[in-house]
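agent> Task received from the user: take the single chain below, predict its 3D structure, and emit structure tokens. No templates, no multimer pairing.
agent> Plan: (1) validate residues, (2) run structure prediction, (3) serialize to tokens, (4) report one or two observations.
agent> Step 1 OK, no nonstandard residues flagged.
tool_call: predict_structure(input=
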Amino acid sequence: MEKLSYATLKAQNYNGYLLENAPERVLQFGEGNFLRAFVDYFIDVANEKCGFNSKVVLTQPIAPGLSNMINAQEGLYTLYLRGSENGKKINDKRIISCVSRCLNPYEDYQALLDCAHNPDLRFIVSNTTEAGIVHESESKFDQEPPVSFPAKLTRLMYERFKVFGSQKGKGFVILSCELIDNNGKELERCVQAYIKDWGLEDAFAAWVKEENIFCSTLVDRIVTGYPRNEAAEINAANNYEDNIIDTGEVFGFWVIEGPESLKEELPFAKAGLPVLITDDHTPYKKRKVRILNGAHTSMVLAAYLAGQDIVRNCMHDDVIKGFMNKTIYDEIIPTLTLPEQELKDFAAAVEDRFNNPFIDHALLSISLNSTSKWKARVLPSFKGFVDKFGKLPACITFSFAAYIAFYNCVRLEEDGMVAARPAGNEYKVSDDRAVLEFFAAHKDDDNKTLAHAVCTNIDMWGEDLTRYAGFEEAVVKALDDIKTMGAYDAMKARI
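)
tool_result: status=success, residues=495
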């Protein structure tokens, strides 16, 4: 079987969209599954639909990477976007042709610096994981390459400044996709810190600030990556060998915080793509965290105690789905500021996403670090509801009790805490060690004592939750219901 290439596709009389030659206008730090199924997909569609006419140069942010495999296929790969839309099963295939090549700066650092000499280069995209945007002292100007991603970027920008610093419009639009708050601003802060560390000239610092745009962005798509169990079957059906097949969910949404002028430079809207350029991305991040992530965190622990194991199966149960929808529509959406219809549309998409027939999303995997997740994803909605309506949100309050019940300690082990379902089967709880030790210390408490201890643990929640009138009592009642009725009937009683 021939490897995927332009020649292979021509020999097969492939008649789908391909862009074999175009200027390299995008440099992407990160060659992994997520960016190839998200940003590169959007660029590929923009190339087809509205003449964006851009190739993407990928570069590995760390030494082990996919450069050889990507270059062996001339940057081509097959992407499958799969899921459920309005209850219908979707499985869309597209050959992505926007990638020109992939660099390995640990083998050829000069090739990365040479990108700065390309007058067509305008956009820099990154996804170097949450730990990627850091400023640390180990990175030096003369390293080949510097250690951290912000240091690599600073060195690349300095090379650009030396070549084009006297020309207007030759700076970069930098689109940070890392999963941290205000990712673009934090990246810019790191770059300026390296400029200071390395003693680079004031003129360069001014150029970075005046000629470059650091955009904070919000990314939203579940990417499931290389389909190892299906790859042989997919390659046989396509009649070519593709070693970097990528898969992801159909849903995708990208919010870019930047000036109005970017709408012309990045014509995603003209291509009909779900990419929003706005002067403030924070309401959309709040929407995602509160509705999508909040729905997960407030629903899955009770659902697991009720006997479920997979998110999709929860969407086929009227009680669990009803509990989730009441939480979202009655208790979370009223606390948000975006237009109500936008929020409801997003919530409807969440149900489709949870019902994805191609993703077996385990409840236990979502349960990891539920303490910090409940604090970040659910507690703000709880507080917003109380502030707005002067009463407790019933489902969110119950979700807190379900969190306590889920953390019912049987024994503490080195790699986590063992708890047990009502049916008796054990499962592993993973969280910060201090959290697990706390629950282990209280494993013999009655519901009232345990609820008080959890509610008053300021280290966990940043405040004493008993300050909210009636909350502690409602949590005790919910814990009693879970024990006597079972989690399923206790959820049913609240919808």
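agent> Step 4: summary for the user.
The chain has two domains: 6-279, 283-492.
agent> Done.
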